[in-house]
Structures are given as structure tokens and as C-alpha cells.
Amino acid sequence: MAVKKEDKFPVARRYQIADVQVSREATAVKPQVVVNLIKKAKHPVLITGGQLLKDEKLVEIAVKFYEKGIPIIATGGSSKPLIEKGVKPQSVVFTLHQVTQFLLDEEWKGFDGKGNYDLVLFMGFLPYYLSRMLSALKHFSKITTVALEEFYQPHAKFSFTNLTANKDMYYSMLEEIVNNL
Amino acid sequence: MAFELREGIFAIDEMRNVSIKIGKVIEEAEEWAEEMGPTPKPGIIELRKWDMKLLERYEPFYAPVQDFCNLCTMGPCDLSQNKKGACGIDLKTAKARLVTIACCIGAASHGGHARHLLDHLIEELGEDYPIDLGGNVNVEAPIIRTVVGIRPRTLGDLREAMEWAERELMRVLHATHIGNEESYLDYESKAMHISMVDHVVMEIADIAQIVAYNMPKAEPNVPLTDTGFGIVDKNKPVIVVVGHNVLYSKPILDYLEEMGRLDDFEIAGLCCTAHDMTRVSGGRAKIFGPISYQLRVIRSGIPDVMISDEQCIRADLLQACKAMGIPLIATSDAAARGLPDASDWPVEKIVNALVSGELPGVFLPVPEKVGQVAPLVAEAIFKKHGGNRKYRFFANDEELWNEINKCTQCMSCVFTCPHNLRIDQGMAHAQKTKDLSKLAKLEEQCIACGKCEQACPKNIKIINVIMASNFDRLYNKKGKMRVGRGPIQDTEIRNVGQPIVMGQIPGVIAAVGCVNYPDEAKSLREILEEFVKRRYIVVTSGCHAMTLGMITDEEGQTLYEKTPGDFDAGGLANVGSCVANSHIAGAAIKIANIFAMRPLRGNYAEIADYVLNRVGAVGFSWGPYSHKAAAIATGFNRLGVPVVVGPHGAKYRRAYLGKYFKKEKWWVYDIKTRSKVPIEPAPDALLVAVETKEEAIVQLARLCIRPNDTSLGRQIKLTHYLELSQKYLGKLPDDWHLFVRSEADLPLKMKDELLHILESEYGWKIDWDKKKILEGPIRKYDAGFNPTIVEEVYEKYAGEKPPQ
Known about the structure:
The complex is a heterodimer. Helices cover about 35% and strands about 10% of the residues of chain A.
């Protein structure tokens, strides 16, 4: 059976059909675009969520990000498996809710004291929880947000498309990013 | 103006055109020696200054669910990126208004409930019916005393508090009209105000029902009651009650008791009516489960009649019951459900209409009649099927598999499910392997909202598939819940007041609220068990209390069966239904009063300031979803109690989150040293949503830290915080050093290691001979530290204006 074009790169479908806003929806991006965004960023960071506790592959990917020089803010308990693999997260105790509040403050110097972050990558979150944080950042900050999630996140500036039907594709897209950094 | 007329004969002569009006007659015994504080019966403005203190430190955080407004005809308006609408309101302020409206709805729900109960009970028992909460409760109604400034002694006295609450509700709701507030901070102040009102009306409702219905009065050793599907004897007619107002269900018990037929029926409930039925019946009524069990129970076909009252009940209850042939009796005027009013019909006519199927349901707002009709209907329906109920989600396995095989994995269900549950994967796995285990697993997480079924293009009965896949486990589920005890005793407060304020009891964790858990319900037990074992005081209520009663361990025991019901270290106290949450707030207030002798009467800001700085209590709502939960949490926040919510709580749109790096915001006045001193960011949030149970555990321990902790207390709190962080986050928390004031604060077992870290990583100066911290902490520990952030409180106790 022939593989359709949309099967290769599925359409962006909101994680929740009713999470509708009037403002812009995320641009669905392929891995290379994310690579370029990271390379151009002055102060990027990856925030990891609690789903890393249930998905070893995401832990593996996060470790690779870290090894490529992307600092990690670990939330939701994701720090534990990361630390076991040698990662030193910039923060482990603050929730995504709190981290988002800090990101919204232009005076915040970041956890590393180098100033607020300009590009924030999100990976491994409950979709509905992440969605609210992305909404806050969309409306009240200028930070570029990128959702590296299995579900398409409409309130990010950039998001992976919806990859729920093909987890292998999701992982391979993440791999493609870390391999090209 | 008041005139005092002493005993004796007196005459008033030569007074013309004078009318004498006698208001409330105050008897000597009712007098209350406590001096009136500064804010009795506060309006919107009186406590605004306190709110602004909180909001300055705990900045509101907004996460819009919609970025548009369509509440008036000038709209709809695009408010994205904080744009203004046609009326001038910006996105932040619009969200703050929405939160205020949600809190008004919550307060109105508890208030409507309280008013209804109060009027009914006064009509039945009289205004002078005494408030007697038992010999161990002398500080009854602590919230009413603190907020309203009265000490209610009778049901009639509660009306005064009720009238004040209703007035404030009107005022705050008024402020949400177009063209009023333009400051999101002022909306937050109003949200806090109406949520404080919510706590008052909850207290009114629960006190009224406790005294009138003789519910347990602050008894730690209340009986255990049965919970779960498996506890219902299906060989009897089954009456199921659902909702929050026991006023309509209690007459069923009364009637059956009077007829000597209580044992001939099964009476089981869902949600808080179930709680309160067990409180009025001494454990004879049973609990099916929390509110998420509605569709489970209805579609199981077990009920022979359903009685609904108010709040949190499905808005399609009639439709759901009708589909199963279960007659519905709707009782509350808050939810008449489009049914004909049968108030004036003879009992026989109502019963016939329901049993024959002529009507799917009736609206019957007459409690005594409900008491007669419900058993008659249940018995007649039971006779029809003879105990052989037709439905168990599916008539047979073939029907179940036919449904499963319809699934094409289009995932429409996944994208409408509140939890994005992977129903598609469960279906696919079952189709390929004939193994239902993946679907069965979903049953433990599913809140049975039913949205998936509407989204399914194949019209698969998804809820039934999920429930049937876990049928044996669900259908035989049995547990035990300790019946709601009501208030906390004064003697218990005397015992724990000092260790809580000094910090030796590391904290009070209050698990309250709804069932929108992010994970399997057992995660609630796992979280709370951690704190019970560590000898925190754990209290619970509402659907959280019921959920805990349904989760058994390997030994088949619930946490209630393994834990005493005292308000004490290592205890698990179930206070009761939603309105019993007032006793948790009341306990915090009573600590300030009974232990610290702080006056309550009309003295809210001082008490809240005391609680914020000294009482290490944290609210916890793992699955909040209702407007009432929003009001309860915000009411706790105004009282100085932080609240941790599960990830769905982020959808309340607003949180209160402090920033550790804004050093200028973390200060107090110290009455002892007559100075303004910087403090550690403790607690650093008033409302925060966590994602996982691991994160919840660490945040709860963290938020128990208070500026007033003694060294021993801080040492104990830090020991738990650090241990839990290492256990669940894999390392010491990032901010632990901020909470260290001296070497005596450090956990003993880790002292040397921590001193080294303070020196090497944070640059602190250590005297290694004495193992003493010389330089580094935000402030030094002072045993006489007496913190406040309220100028008036400082002035009251220091006798001078606060320092600048």
C-alpha cells in the first residue's frame, strides 16, 4: 500500500479540539527549522516535563540535548532520570507553572544568571498543562516557544505537528534535531 | 445608638411623635466579652489593603483559555497579546474578572445551599435551636467570628452572617459588570473577598446540618462506612442519591426507619450527599463513589431510582437515567431539569407515573414527599426485574466486542478527552490480541465525562467499553471511608497548636476537592501516605475523602483503616462534605486563637497574617474542576494558606506565584526587634499547579515552611523537604539554602555535608571548629522573632508606627 504524503508528515491537529483562541496558532515545524532556531538563539533552554518518568526515550533525547550544550530546566520530577544519566539541570524544584512565571518577568536573569532565555523548548509534558503555559507566554512575553511534543500545541510559536499516530516518527524527529546541533 | 434599660419600673411621659423600634433583643448570656476588631462584616474595601499585600508578593499569573471576550454586544473582542476590548478591558483584567465570576459562582453554590438548609431547619426547629457542637468545641464558628464578628449561639443567629454574605455576593457580582473595574489586582481582591464569603457560608451550612441532624460533632473516632460498587447488595431495591444537599435525601432514611424497613433497601450515594447521608445515618448509608462515578453507576443499571439535588451533577442526568430506564426524582430548585413539578401531586400519582414509565422523572422539591416516593418507586421497579437487572454495560460479551471492533483508531476521542487518554491504543490492542487490559487500565483514569462518545464517528459506546473492560474489578470494588467528623476539637488544637506554629509538626496537608486527577486515582493515596508516614497532619474532605476510601493496598485496606482519625501528627481526619471544608480553615484560625490567644472578633487581617507567617498548612487539590473548588482555594489563599493543585488546576487560568529573585518583596516587620527584616521566600506561592505526583509531594513539603519556624521546627521541615527532593527529584532542591538561618536549621544527619555545600557552592563563611555559620543567610534566627506584614498589627503589639 502506498504511503500518502500526509502520513509521512501528518497534519497539525490541536491536542484538544476545543482549545481555540483567536490569535495565531503555532507554525508546525520540521526538525531542521528547530535546529536553525536553536543555532540562532542567544540563550536557549530545554524545559523537560513529568512525562520523562514514563518514557525512557525522551530521557535519552534530553540527555543528547544536554550533551550538545543545551541547558535543561527539569520539572515534574524529570530531573531524577536525567541526573542518573549525568545531566546537571539548572533547576529541579520549580514547577513549570513557576518557571513560566519567571520567564514572563523581563528582569529575571535565568537560573544561570545570564539573563532571561530567548528560546524555550518544551518536551515531555501533559498536553493540557503545557498548553496553558504556552498561552501565558504567547500573550504576555516575547519569548520564542517551541513545543517538541507528540501532540501539536497551538499556543506555541512553533510546534511539532501532531504525531500521535506515529511515535517512531516523533522520536526520529527529535533525534534529527539533536543529531544536527 | 443603643440604650441600656436596667431592671425596674419606668415610664416615658410626654413623648409625642416618637416611635420606638426594638431590633434584636440581646440577652445577657449572649454577650461576648471579646472586643470587636477592626473589620466586622467587611465590605469590598475593608480588607483590600491585606489583599494588596498578598498580591504584591504573590503576583497573579494568567494563562488564558480564551483570548477573546464575548460577554457584551460590542464584542466579540480580540484581547490577544493583552489587547483591549471595546469596553477597554485588557486580557489580564478580563481573566481576573472571569476568575472573580467563577469564585462568585462557587460562593453562591455553597451560599444557596446554606440559605436553603438554614431556612428549612429554622422552620422545622425554630430560630432558638441551639448551636451545640459538643463539649470539646467552645470556639464554634471560628470563621464567622473572625469575618462577621458575631458569635452565633442559635440557628437564628446564623441568619445574620448569611445576610451579610448575600449582600457581599451582590456587591462583588456587581463589580464584574461591564464598565466597572479596570485593575486586575482589584478583581483579584474581589475574588479573594467573595471566596472568604464562601468560607463563611460553608461554615453556616455545615454547622446548621451538624446541630440539626445530629451529625458527628468533632469526633475523631467516627465509624467507617462502606464504599465502592461491591458494597451494594443488588438483591435489594437500590436508591441512589447524588449531589450536595442532604436535606432531600435524609427523609428517605427517616421514612424507612419509621416504617422499620431500613434493612430492606440499599441506600448509596454519589458525591457530597453521600458523605452527608453517612453522617446523618451513623454509617448506615453507603457510598458508591465520587462524582466521576455517575455514568459508571447509571450505566451499570444498578439504581432502581435516582435522587438528584444540586451542584456538580451531570447536566444530562435525566437523559442518562432515561436511557437506562431509571426513574429520576430531581429535588433542588437549582436543577429542576425541565421536569414537571409534582409538589402538589398525591404520592400514589407520582409513584405510578415513574414506575409505569409515563414520566422519566419528576421535579419534587418537597423533602418529606421524596422520603415516601423514593422507596416506593425503588421497590416497584425492583419487583419488575426481580433483582435480575438487565444491564451491565453490555448484555453480553458479543456486544462488547462488536463495539470494540468498530474502532478505526481515528483518534477523535483522544482529541476531545480531558486527559487525552489513548483510547485508540486500548481499542487497537484489544482488536489485535483480544486482551482488554489496556482498556481496563483506562478505567482507573477515566472521569467518565462521555465527550468521547459524541466525538466518535462510529458511535461506539466508549464509556461502556472502558467500564466493561474492567468490569470485575470495578463491580467488586470495596473500601472503607471514615465518616465525616465535622469540626476539629479545641483540645486537639491545644495539643498541636504549639508544635505546628513552632514547626515540630512539619505541616498540615489538607487534601480537598474534585476528581479530575491527572493519573490513576491511587496516586492520591500515594501522595498522602508519604505525609501520613512522616507524621504530618493530613485532613481531607469531599471527593478526595471518598476516593481515599476506595483505594486499597495489597492487604485490602484503605488509608483510613491504617490511620487514626485525629487532628494530630500521623492522623488522617475526614471532616466531611464540601461545606465541611470550613472546619479546615477554622482549624487554622483556631490555632491563632486558642494557642496564640489572638482575638478573632472582626479581626480577619491579623488572623490571616498570623496564619501566613506561622501555620504551616497547605491545601492540596489533586483533581480540581468545580467553581466551588476555585472559591475554596482562593478563600484559603486570602487566609494565608497556600494551595497546590493538580495539572488541570492550571485551567483555572490564574495562579498566585511569588518570585524568589525579587528580594525586595520578601520582608516582614519584626515586632520584637522593631525592625523591617528580609526573610526567606516562604511560602513562595499561594496557588501553584504541579504536573506529577512526585512534584506534588515535594511542593507540599516545601510550602509548609514558614518564617516563624523555630530552629528545631525548621530542621524538621528541611529534613523532610530535602529527603523528599532527593527521593523524587534526584538531588537536593535548588533553593534549600534560602531557608537556612543558622546551623541549627540544618538536618542533623546531613549537617556536615550541607555546611560544605554552603561554603563551596554558595560562598557562605563557616567556622569549622564550631561548625557554625558566620556569613551567608538572608537573616539570622531569633527565638523571639515576631513577624507581621500588617502595619496595624505591628502598631497594636509594638505600640508604635512600623519602621520604614
